[in-house]
Amino acid sequence: MKQSTLGSCIRALRMQNHMTQVQLAARLSVTDKAVSKWERDVSYPDIALFPRLADVLGVTVDDLLRECKTECRSSKLLRAFEVSRDIRTPLHIMLGFVEIAKNNYNDPETLLKYLEGIKVSGEYLMTLLNNIMEAAGSSDKRSAFEDFPVGAKHLDQYIQEKICSDPKDSQTFDFSGKRILIAEDMAVNREIAAEILKQTGAETEFAEDGLACLEKMESSPTGYYDLILMDILMPNMDGLEATRRIRHLEDPKKASIPIIAMTTTVSEKDRNAAFEAGMDAFTEKPIFVDRFYASLSLYLNRKDEK
Description:
Layout: H1 6-16, H2 21-28, H3 32-39, H4 50-57, H5 61-66, H6 73-103, H7 108-136, H8 155-164, E1 179-183, H9 187-198, E2 203-207, H10 210-219, E3 227-230, H11 239-247, H12 252-255, E4 259-263, H13 268-277, E5 281-284, H14 289-305
Parallel strand pairs: 1-2, 1-3, 3-4, 4-5
Helix pairs in contact: 2-3, 6-7, 7-8, 10-11
């Protein structure tokens, strides 16, 4: 007896629902050739189509995934769907909380509660994406999703614990009197970093790319800037090259200014490249505020102790 496959399952369910390939294709907004290929196991539906396909055929997504048995595709499709679901969960929560926050802008307590929920969901999503990137870059020949932990089902409880508990004591950071140069090509990212640093009393100035950052360092008085936040991917001159050139400035105090990479690139290769270029530390975008402040304090406080 022929082993059950996703293609034969789709064909049987389509016929059970008295649909032609053309009719099923129209319901899914795909071509009838695509449906024909699915039923012959020549290709698989895009993973994003699985919920709609299951709904049209009157089954669950899990029912369809159980039939994906050829060439071990079931594991890859199942993991991809589970990861997709895990990503959608925090996004759904964040968008929902944004709407609630908008409707309660005049109620500080409620507003802060849902802003905290957005923050927690964003941190969860960032951790999830970082883990996916690490798995995708693994030299292991297994699927990148093979051992990926599915945890979105626990997110609701986690958020409730975070936003409903009493706020815990947090360390305060005072960078008053410090001047930080932010090298970042995106205006919105400059604004975010500046606003976060404003809470510590630090002063900020901007450079829109690595070349502008280098020029500001060359033209400023010695000791004018206390630290540089350097994006890596920028036009004209990237952050790595700007760092290398700063490290070779004739003025030893300028050449030794603390430089912290601030970027969305989080792989080990990117970290190594940053350190090899002469950067002192590495912080992620989006910014995790407490970790961000703690990282800066290592270098700003150290300067005060000299």
